[in-house]
Structures are given as structure tokens and as C-alpha cells.
Amino acid sequence: MTDALDASDPRTLPGFFDALAEGELLGGVCADCGEVLLPPRPACYACGSRAVDVEPQSPNGRVFSYTAVHTPPPAFAGDAPYTIAVVELADGGRLLGRLTADYADVAIGDSVELTVREPTPQEQQVALDYEADWPVHVFEPR
Amino acid sequence: MPEPVIASVGASPLGRTDLPGRDLFSVALAEAFDGLPNPADLVEAVYVGNQSESYEHQIMHGTLLAEWAGLRHVPAERVEGCAAAGALALRHAVKDVRNGEHDAVLACGVEKMTSAGTSGATDALSAAFDRAIEQRSGVTAPSQYALLAQRYLHETDATERDLAKIAVKNHENAAHNPRAQFPKEIDVATVLESDAVAPPLKLYDCAPVGDGAAAVLVTTAELAASLDRPQVRVAGSGASANNIAVAERNMTEIAGARIAAETAYEEAGIDAEAVDIAEVHDAFTVCEALLAEAAGFAPTGTGYQSYENPAERTDGWTDVQLSPSGGLKARGHPIGATGLLQALEAYEQLTGAAGDRAVEGAETALLLNEGGVADAVTVGHVLTTAEVS
Lengths: 142, 389
Hints:
The complex is a heterodimer. Chain A is mainly beta.
């Protein structure tokens, strides 16, 4: 077992989002099997190892799947319809997020780039106290 | 080891009802105990499947429903696993009887989904997704499954029309089910022309929001016989959790469902070919296709043919009939009760109580109940007639 985690460790959510706010996407990389864990966490789901290194991940990737939300949760009612994608990143991890493109203009395999922005006042309003300053990641077409 | 059986079942009306959750439960319980001694004279423990406190601002469903059943001082608890909560409750009851801890356990489920409208249900269901990444991106249940459907259509020969035909087939089944929320037939054009919810999924690809409760009495075979009830054996039970975030899973090979089904088959001493009917978690049409493959009924990439008669399906398919109740799509999907409604359908099919929707000669049923998105958690049960060898 490793040392006790604290909120500065990227294997906790505050640590991950602090780095993301600086523009750095950190992933956990399993020292035993190589699985990429986004966000980083203390244990590898692929093999069970707790030897997880933290490494910067490429923001570039390709659309693995996508859809558009026409019936949003109340917190995002004003945004609909908006496009959601699962993106396979260049370093092997997969991450879900908003994609700033019309659904009709997207195809599986499209190149996209992860960008980071501050939460909007509306997003902060529905955030939990500890989430209020966490940045939001958004994929943009390349 | 005692053999667990289902000795009785009951359900409330499904859909938009004027009853709160506890009262829906009372209706389901009254049907299940019609002609039986009072619950207080039989039931030794209670498990309640329930998704969310946000519908009625109520937790403590074990305590509450035990009380409403006239039980006091029995172990009672709410079981949570989003839409798999009902089958998790059933699994706990089955294990208690199998372990010899109790002779009679009540597995029940309840959800009052219509209390806050569609947006309230959308919000409550989104709590099943990873908070940090998925919820903050604004993803919804239909859009999560749309991500699976988009991949499935990309990787296989299936089309949106095939998915629509699954909905048509399940509505056709529901038309013969007096319990169904939507007991009416629809046509392919109705599905294809319905509003976009999360493309490629449309309104008629999606199971409805609705209220409902179900109660299933699990006992030893001896107790069921002494009560003079038709009984159905619970021959196998399996469960598996997978990652909460859909991006981290194989989106077209539903590994958790395969493991849950295979574990249940192994306990029952059968293989997929032996299954006559299956109630699978068709919360969205694509789920029936994916789960037909995961359960071993269909070769990879051909599960979408579930709407075809067995003779018309591609080689390698079994003769199983899927979702004879009408499935979640048309029978209804009151989240915490759904897994028990699946068990109710199998009980009626295997005891000759399914009326004109009866699948002839059905002796073995598979139930697959899922929570979260796809196999975030899956519970599988094999039920068989008491006579089957």
C-alpha cells in the first residue's frame, strides 16, 4: 500500500481537477498492466494492482461514439440539444465529455482535442460545495 | 441446502397512478398474499428494491414497508443498485433461504417515478452515473444508451429499423399482458418517426417513466408445498459489477451481463440453449440486442434479430423468446420494481398463468436486470418449473 492520499494527490478528484485547471490532463497508468485510468485512482480496475503511476495524457483523440441530448437534466435545460462523445485519447484512455459540434457534423473517428474552461455561473449554482471551482473539460473538433 | 422457490407474486398497476409508493406496495402485497396467511405469520425478512429518495423524499423503505405489511422486529432493508435494485432484493432473499437462515423472505420493489415529472425522473436517474465526469457533462440515461447504440450500429449489420422492430415486438407482447403500462401494438413507422431523444435513439426506443410496485415471496420448497401454492425453482443466481463510467467499458460486449448469466446457468446446471424465455433489461431497444448476445442466445453482432421468430434468425441463435411480458419497453419500468416484475412474468409463464401470451412449453427462464448504464451492475436469475429435471 502507498502512503495515505490527500487532496493534493492526483489520484483524488481535487488533485486531478487542480491539475486540469492548469491545463494538464493527468491519467493513472497501471505499473503492472499499463491500463490508463481517467481520472487517476488508487487501484487498477483491469488487474487490481495498486501500483498506479500518474502521467500527463495527450489531449488529442478520436470520437469513439457520440450522441446528442434532447431531453436534458434540469441543470442543463438551456443548453439542449448538445453533443456528447466518448473519446479515445492518443495515450489509450477513454473519456466522456461534451463536444462543441452539431450532432449532424460528427462521425466516429473524427479528430478532437480536449480543452478546459472554468465552470459557468449556472454550473456553479448546481455544483456541490467542493466541486464549485472544478474546471469543465470540453472536446473541440480539430 | 434448502431449495429456494418463488411461492407467490403480486404487482400494483403500472404507469401514471394516483398512489404514493407505500400504497403501491400495499396493492402488490395484497395480490401476493391473496389466499395465504398474513405476512406476519410467514415472512421472516424483507428486502426492498428502490432507486431514489428524490421521488418521495423517503429512505428507510425496509422499515416502512415491513411496517405497512404488518411486520415488526424482522430484519428489513432497502437495496440500491439503480434499476437492478429489484433483482438484488430477489437475490438476497434467495440466498437467505438457500443458506437456511430463513424459510420465507419477501423481496419487493417500489418506485414512484411520476412525482416530479419527466425532468425530475431524468435528474434522479442521472445520479446513477459517475458524478465527477459524466454527470457534470450533462449526460442522461437515453444519451448513455445512445452511445452504446451508435457503436452497435457502427460495428454490426443492425439498423435503426432493426431496433424499431424490437420495440414493435415488445409492444405486440404487451398487448396480451393485462399488467402492461402500454398494452397496445405500434408499427415501425411510429418508432422511426418519433421524436429524437438521443440519436440514434428515439422516443419509442425508450422504456417509459412510470410508477409501480411488485412483491415476490421466496420460500423453501417445503413451505411453498404446505401453502399449496404453485412454485417455481430459483435454480441459479449471479451478479456482477463493472465500471460506473461507460467510457471505460467495452460498449458492445456487455461483460457483466455475460458473467451474471453464466454464473446463474452454472448454478442451475444448464447452458444458454436450455432457456425457453428470457426477460432482459430492455430499458432501450439496443439493450435487448446486446443482452441477447451477452446471455449466449445469439452470435456476436446478431442480437438485434430478437424480434424475429426463431426459425428466421441467423444460424447460432437459440430458440429463446425474449421479453414475453412486453419488456421494460411496454410492460413498464418502475425502476426499483423492475427486476421483480421480470420474476413475476417468469412465475406466471412457468406456472401456466400467462394467459394468451403464454410461451408454449416454457420450462426455463433467464432474468437479466441491470442498473446504472448497461452492466454497471447486472443480476441474473434462472427460474425453472418445479417439474423440470
